[in-house]
UniProtKB/TrEMBL annotation, chain A:
<keyword id="KW-1003">Cell membrane</keyword>
<keyword id="KW-0653">Protein transport</keyword>
<dbReference type="GO" id="GO:0015031">
    <property type="term" value="P:protein transport"/>
</dbReference>
<dbReference type="Pfam" id="PF00071">
    <property type="entry name" value="Ras"/>
</dbReference>
<keyword id="KW-0449">Lipoprotein</keyword>
<keyword id="KW-0677">Repeat</keyword>
<dbReference type="InterPro" id="IPR005225">
    <property type="entry name" value="Small_GTP-bd"/>
</dbReference>
<comment type="similarity">
    <text>Belongs to the small GTPase superfamily. Rab family.</text>
</comment>
<feature type="region of interest" description="Disordered">
    <location>
        <begin position="182"/>
        <end position="213"/>
    </location>
</feature>
From TrEMBL, chain B:
<dbReference type="InterPro" id="IPR037191">
    <property type="entry name" value="VPS9_dom_sf"/>
</dbReference>
<dbReference type="InterPro" id="IPR009060">
    <property type="entry name" value="UBA-like_sf"/>
</dbReference>
<dbReference type="GO" id="GO:0043130">
    <property type="term" value="F:ubiquitin binding"/>
</dbReference>
<dbReference type="GO" id="GO:0030139">
    <property type="term" value="C:endocytic vesicle"/>
</dbReference>
<dbReference type="GO" id="GO:0031267">
    <property type="term" value="F:small GTPase binding"/>
</dbReference>
<feature type="domain" description="CUE">
    <location>
        <begin position="439"/>
        <end position="482"/>
    </location>
</feature>
<dbReference type="Pfam" id="PF18151">
    <property type="entry name" value="DUF5601"/>
</dbReference>
<dbReference type="GO" id="GO:0005829">
    <property type="term" value="C:cytosol"/>
</dbReference>
<feature type="domain" description="VPS9">
    <location>
        <begin position="174"/>
        <end position="315"/>
    </location>
</feature>
Length: 213, 482
């Protein structure tokens, strides 16, 4: 099973938590409840590689969307494999905020393979009343293309397009991981613990109580 | 060789008796550990429960039982593992008086990797399934961190030496603890409204938040990184109970983070930064991930937010009122500072003759005490002397003994009169029991307060059934309430 960390970014009123709640509950895979609470959720998707089923597990890290908590975000997106940046198609400034998240991710996350998915939420509101839409699909889509992002409009309320987001991210990450595996196998080893180069004598079994006396 | 070592690490005492005792010479010790076992269960039950995930979540449920590990470790076949551990601890304390935090992290991690690998070679460990192996790995971590706590937890180091003698990293922990505390004092008046908390949360829930703060405060009562982590998770669990009660749990981090910040500001939690760093450095990397990592990061994020807090970060409805509240608080803070400086002067004098009585020590660090006395039994086992109660007390408190060593001039370590130690041992247990009862009483009172409409007997019954695990109790009571 492959496991990926996905961070969830977006203003507090855009419904980013609803997207994840919808995904976690609607998935065909067994419902995985988190043990502590809804800020950290995990869920799997199954993707096809030729005839093989591959299980991809997402660990979904929610962030506080209020502007005042923006400074906490780096704590959450470091070491992420994917980011879901959400805006609300009925709120003009929410796309700008989403774009500033994208900008920050591109500058701060040191991983060229980071998959960023831009999501316009609340399409259900425009179904009866197209007037409610204030962010053009074309504008957002063009921005996404120019910046190499995945993109779609969805509705957390009806579930439209939700599963597909995670399916697509899973497939993308799987491809990335596959490529990485073929190019270099031992790239991850020994990266932790900084540059400290220090060792104790190897523990031994005949190291009588040593010391003094 | 340094006196520090002699007292600090009983492994190094008395080098003629280093053989591992025959199993049957351990009878006194075993019977002792059994009596302790009961106590220990009640204490770690909280710890256990939080790792016990929903059954359908994972087939292999992890558990943690330190006594089980100790018993495995004591098996004659595992003797080499014991010797490795002892060799490591010995090297750690003898090779250098003070390692930097990064060095400590590296050395301790290296040892874990080494000994976990060695598990494959020795019975009973090489026959264990994943779940029991995990328990053993947790056990090793708890054992060595319990022993090395006085050297690795920054506030403990500060009890042994002045701050300017510390390495940069440990020193920064202390400074940041102080800085965070200053900020918390400066903004002690902050209310939920200032933090963008969803309006649906009623202020009556302040009591719940107090309980969450109390839970987080327990972090200083444990030495093992895992136990500290469990305190954090329990705190978060209580916060989510509050959110659930207000039908806001689906809101995720938007609702959770402000409440966490509130709990930190009002919880009066000591050494929070040092504790976070300690967990980050010494929790085995593979265990610190997923949910644990998320909530640790959130706590870190929340402390960063507080450390950088200024007026512009707050939601303020009435500027005039805010200014007045802020200024009134500043006056209080300045008064408090003045008092502290005066106390500090006196405090320094006291420090010179470190006359920490045992009782004070227990109240400083009560809950982990039983675990410590178990670790100390383990020392007897290391030393290879037939276990008697004599040896249990002194090494049970690494903190106390090290502090003592610094001041008293190298007394031979084993001069304790056994009867005195026996009394001490009994005293510890009595003290621990008292602490526990007090804890339980406090939890009960807090819950009565929170659920005034529920019959008290019911609350008490639930507490007993749930072994006073605060998170679970609140959860259960909330469900009943609705």
């Amino acid at each position: 099973m492959l496991q990926f960390k996905l961070v969830l970014l977006g203003d507090s009123s855009v419904g980013k938590s609803s997207i994840v709640n919808r995904f976690v509950k609607d998935s065909f895979d067994e419902f995985r409840e988190s043990t502590i609470g809804a800020a950290f959720l995990s869920q799997t998707v199954t993707i096809k590689d030729d005839d093989q089923d591959v299980t991809v597990k997402f660990e979904i890290w929610d962030t506080a969307g209020q502007e005042r908590y923006k400074s906490l975000a780096p704590m959450y997106y470091r070491n992420s494999n994917a980011a879901l940046v959400v805006y609300d198609i009925t709120q003009a400034d929410s796309l700008e905020k989403a774009q500033s998240w994208v900008h920050e991710l591109k500058n701060k996350v040191d991983d060229n393979n980071l998959v960023i998915y831009l999501v316009g939420n609340k399409v259900d509101l425009t179904k009866d009343d197209e007037e409610k839409r204030v962010v053009d699909r074309d504008v957002a889509e063009k921005y996404a293309q120019e910046n190499g992002l995945l993109f779609n409009e969805v509705s957390a309320k009806t579930g439209e397009g939700i599963q597909q987001i995670f399916q697509t991210i899973g497939e993308n990450l799987y491809e990335v991981r596959k490529k990485e595996n073929t190019t270099n196998n031992s790239n991850m080893a020994n990266r932790a613990h900084g540059q400290v180069d220090i060792q104790l004598p190897r523990p031994s079994t005949n190291d009588s109580t040593s010391c003094c006396s | 060789m340094s006196d520090l070592l002699k007292e600090f690490d009983p492994l190094s005492q008395d080098s003629n008796t280093q053989e591992i005792p025959e199993p049957n010479t351990n009878t006194t010790e075993n019977s002792k550990s059994n009596t302790n076992d009961n106590d220990n269960n009640s204490i770690t039950s909280e710890t256990k429960s939080s790792l016990t995930k929903k059954p359908d979540d994972r087939q292999d449920e992890y558990f943690f039982d330190f006594q089980v590990f100790i018993n495995d470790f004591k098996e004659p076949n595992a003797e080499p593992l014991v010797k490795y551990t002892r060799s490591f601890l010995n090297n750690f304390v003898t090779q250098k008086a003070l390692w930097t935090a990064s060095e400590q992290q590296k050395l301790i991690n290296d040892f874990k990797l080494f000994i976990f690998e060695k598990f494959n070679q020795f019975k009973p460990f090489n026959e264990f399934n994943k779940v029991k192996l995990r328990n053993s790995q947790e056990g090793i971590e708890k054992l060595i961190m319990g022993k090395l706590y006085p050297l690795c937890f920054s506030p403990e180091l500060l009890r042994k030496m002045p701050i300017d003698k510390l390495d940069e990293e440990h020193k920064n922990d202390i400074l940041e603890d102080g800085f965070l505390q200053e900020k918390i004092d400066e903004y002690a008046f902050i209310e939920l409204d200032n933090l963008d908390v969803n309006k649906k949360i009623s202020l009556k829930l302040g009591k719940f938040l107090k309980l969450a703060g109390k839970e987080l405060n327990k972090i200083n009562q444990f030495k093992a990184p895992r136990d500290k982590m469990v305190c954090i998770l329990n705190t978060c669990k209580i916060i989510f109970s509050i959110l659930k009660h207000s039908k806001l749990e689906q809101d995720g981090a938007d609702s959770f983070i402000p409440l966490l910040i509130y709990v930190i500001i009002h919880g009066n939690i000591q050494h929070l930064i040092s504790n976070i760093r300690f967990i980050e450095r010494f929790r085995y990397e593979r265990f610190l991930k997923s949910e644990d990592q998320y909530y640790l990061s959130s706590l870190q994020g929340a402390t960063n937010f507080i450390a950088n807090l200024s007026k512009k970060d707050l939601a303020i409805s009435n500027d005039e009122v805010y200014e007045k509240t802020y200024n009134d608080n500043q006056i209080r803070v300045n008064e408090k500072k003045k008092q502290e400086i005066e106390l500090g002067k006196k405090g320094n004098v006291q420090n010179e003759d470190i006359a920490i009585t045992n009782d004070q020590e227990y109240s400083y660090n009560p809950i982990d005490e039983i675990a410590s006395s178990m670790v100390s039994m383990f020392n007897d086992f290391f030393i290879g002397q037939p276990a008697t109660t004599t040896k249990i007390e002194p090494q049970g408190k690494p903190t106390l003994t090290t502090v003592a060593t610094e001041t008293s001039t190298s007394m031979p370590p084993n001069t304790n009169i056994s009867s005195e130690s026996m009394t001490n041992d009994r005293k510890i247990r009595k003290a621990v029991k008292k602490m526990e009862e007090q804890e339980q009483q406090e939890t009960l009172e807090a819950l009565y307060d929170m659920f005034p409409d529920l019959p008290r007997e019911l609350i008490e019954d639930i507490c007993i059934a749930k072994k006073y695990r605060t998170g679970v109790c609140v959860d259960t009571l909330l469900n009943l309430y609705e």
